[in-house]
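Follow-up to my earlier ticket, as requested here are the two runs.
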Amino acid sequence: MKPRQQGATLVVGLIMLALITLTVTTALTLSSTNLKSVGNMQVRNEAIAAANNAIEQVISGPFAVTPASSQIQIDIDNDNTVDYIVNVSVPTCLYNISETTSNGTGFYTDVETPGFEAAPPTFNTLWDITAVVSDARSNTTIVTVHQGVRRSQLPQLQTSASCPGPTT
C-alpha cells in the first residue's frame, strides 16, 4: 500500500509560480514607467529646442526697433508636420546703457570744438524674450523659456522709442 501524499509539492509549486508571475509583472510595470519617463524627457527637450529656434528667429530680425509678439510654428523632426507652436511675447527691454564714444577716445561731448566732430551716443540694451511652447496636436503648454538678449549699438532715437526705461 502506498503512503498517503500530503500535497506539499503542489503547494510549493503554486507559491513559486505566483512569485515568478509577480516578478514578471513588476518588471513589465517598471519598464513601462521608464519608457514613459524617457518619452516625457524627449518631448521636453524637443520643446526647449523649438523655443530656442523661435527665439533665434526673433532676434535675427529688427526686434529691438519694433518689438512685437509672434507665433512661430516649428517642425522639429522635418517631416513637414508642425510639431510645436511657439508664442513669443513682446520682447521687454530691461535697461539700456549709453556707450559714449568719439572717434575711439571714449568720450562724448556736445560742446562745439573746432575741428572736432563727436559721434552721437549709441546704446547697449538688455532684453527679456519669453517663449511659451505648446504641442501642435493637443495645444497643451509644455515649457516656458526666458532668454536674455543683449543688443548693442542702437542709436538714441531707436533706444528711446523701444526702450524707454531708465538709462544707467
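Run two:
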Amino acid sequence: MASKLSEFSTNTSSFGAKGLAIAKSDSADIAGGPVKAITVTAAGSLSFIPPGNADNDPISYADVPVGFIPPYQVRRVKSTGTTATVRTIED
C-alpha cells in the first residue's frame, strides 16, 4: 500500500522536510530556531543547548557517529565542544 506524503502530519514527531547547515556559535541561537532536531553529517564531538536549558547548561556528547540524532529539540549548537558537522531537521 503506497502512502502519500501529504498524509504525514507536520509536528515534532514527523520526518523533516528540510535540513540546513548550522553555524556553530557559543552565543547565538540557530536562526529561526529552535529546530525539531539535528543530525550529524561528519563524526566528532557535539555540544548543544535545547530550548529549555540555560545558556550555561549545554548537553555534550563525545565521539558521535555520522547519522546520530540527539533526542532533543535544539536552539544552539556550540562552537566550543563541537567538532562534528551538523545539519538541522526541520518541517
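The only thing I checked on run two: The longest strand covers residues 37-42. Let me know what else you need.
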